[in-house]
Amino acid sequence: MSALTLRLRECPRQRIDLSGFTSDALAGKSLADIQALPLWVGNRQMPAGDLFIIHGHDSDHIRIESESDRLDGIGSGMTRGSIRIQGHAGAYLGRGMRGGEIQVEGDASLFAGTGMTGGLLRIGGNAGDFLGAAIPGERRGLRGGRIEVRGNAGERVGDRQRRGMILIAGNAGDYCGSRMGAGTILVLGQTGANVGFAMRRGTILLTSAPELPPTFNDNGPQDLSVLTLLAKSLPSPFDQIGERGTRVQRWLGDLGHGGQGEVLAWPPLT
Amino acid sequence: MLTKLAGGRLYDPANGIDGEVRDLYIHDGRILHHPPPGETPGQTFDLDGKLVMAGAIDMHTHIGGGKVNIARAMLPEDQRAHRRNRTASTRSGGGHAAPSTLAAGYRYAEMGYTCCFEPAILPINARQSHMEMADTPMVDTGGYAMLGNDDLLLQLMSEGASQETINDYVAWTLHATQCIGIKVVNPGGINAFKFNARTLDVDEQHPHYPLKPRDIIRTLSRAVAELGVPHPLHVHASNLGVPGNRTATLATMAAAEGFPIHLTHIQFHAYGTEGDRHFSSAAAEIAEAVNRLKNVTIDVGQVMFGQTVTISGDSMHQHANHHHAHPHKWTCMDIECEAGCGVIPFRYKDKNFVNALQWAIGLELFLMVEDPWRVFLTTDHPNGAPFTSYPHLIRLLMDRSFRNDQLARIHPDAAAMSLLGSLEREYSLYEIAIMTRAAPARILGLTDRGHLGSGARADLCVYRPSDDAERIFSSPMLVFKNGEVVVEEGRITRPLQGTTQVVRPEYDRAIERRIGDWFDRHHTVRLANFGISDAEMAEGIGSPVEVHPCRPRSVT
Fold first, then answer.
1. Model pTM?
2. What are the structural domain ranges in chain B?
3. Most exposed among A54, B38, B132, B539, judged by the fewest C-beta atoms under 10 Å?
């Protein structure tokens, strides 16, 4: 069967809420049912078929073709199946995702992977602020699963992260890993100011010297063989950390918040 | 146009009508028992034995004012999880524990409520509170102004000011804040908290002022009675939620010295210290006192299981309970040195001994207070539970076997310590109509509401009879507001805005000089900018006032 494919007819003036378009919600629905599904566009509802050209049958594999960055909530709460986005995704991509796989070829906007507890979220381009973070009112960010970003991520990556892994091939903005409680963040590029601000526990792995808050303690260089195992478990290009060895500089913090978090940085390649 | 409601079964306790089948007419927004001569009904609703009651009145629900807004801001997840989408006639809103203004107004109307009263308006927040209530559609609103922890009153009392001076200050407060009653929260206690006191019992001296909570209750209940404000002093007693607080509650009743006094959310004030866990029900003792003291009225503040948020001006006891916050986030704050506020999200659990016993204590109080005219149906929304649980609560009161089924599900030790299983009383529809309509209207002085007499405002609702009271009251067939159908089959068909109910006792304007001096020295606003005028209520805030008469009283 061919993947259920949605092609955006024209770039909307308002944001489209696609949170109901998951394999779970569409299972067993006919193409006509799917075309008639009401979607919120700004403050009004329209049938999905008026917004998208929809074809294909296999709702376990959804393809979205869009040049707009206004498709919000793609893959919200999904537990299985796959969603592949050719183009960009809007805000709240994979929000509350529990399983399955989302792949975006372009960029994702704010709050991608927030409230996520499982599954795999791959972003080919850049991610906006609050990647895998806690949205206002929530006390936990990423709680499971994995987020991979090939480009850069915005500020507050993994804010209040509790579990799971965030891998960023490019740079991350300010306050990376702020208020983290557990889990792992790996950034292959540069990071902004205040890495690990108010973190309690958890691990932030960096390949460049971090700009830490003053409430972090330098533990000196450490030899951590666990890094070999970690590198072997990661996909390309993140597995390249294996080439950097197991000797890293380690800082503990944030001492204002228990100080059991760690920031590990490899020395610069010579 | 003349509208006829044909063949409805009327429950109108204010006029002694208990389930009689009668025709009613609505003309110019008023109820008539006979059509005006020469007029024929333009519209007839054939009700065929459906239940007809006046629009329900919630006399204690936190729907406006600073605290509610803090709760809304603190719990965005509550809004996200309970969305209410817009329809052709209604706007979007949301929230369960702390619903948005729009969601609250719509849901109240969908349950047959036409009038709601915010019980805790801090005078300095009155403008904001009225704006929020004006934004709450479908229902008429009103509020009780909070006094008793403000330094001006405590200063006046400490100086030995005459009762007349206090009366003038109380009356001025009602005028300036556009309120219908006076409330005192933990008399003197919120103020004492700022002097580092963590408790203040009824007969304990305030750490700064030479006063006891007993003095404040006596002075304010006397002021309210002498001014003729229909609603008795609305008291949130000392020692909220503290095991053994029954003595403070009984002392508070006595402190009114025979003047009318309303003890609110009394479930939270009816605790003993018996048993292994030093927490027990004192409902029997409290109910006995209420039955004996005819100057006392109560509302229950029933606890229902589930997630809610507790919001109270009682910063002293909210601070003491903050470690129970669920989800774990909370705030306690001072508001312009006038009083305090504490917002603590909370989840009541039926398998938790204390919560289960709180639930049972509330029901014991409902069932053991004999006179339904003196006990009101509230959950102290949202402190005990959101108001949306009222239909479930009514079923618990009306259906003993359902109640006992629920009792079997709570923490067994709590069930064993409660009298609830032995209480056989079942409320009748007539008694429910008393406690949700007739009695609140009477105690608030709303003469044209809460009943179906000729000339009454045509706020009424029609329910489908059922064996399941929860079904009856969760979705009325029709709700009329001011004579217009606003809800059909539990859905809003015609949105409208309500009015604000106020009282205006007379007073000597000389008090304004003293208040003005106080404002100049201590307040962030000038006196001239403080009071809310009728024009501002009507045009700026958008909720015109309706003035209800005062009737000066003395000791009963």
1. 0.91
2. 2-54+449-492, 234-305+352-444, 309-348
3. B38
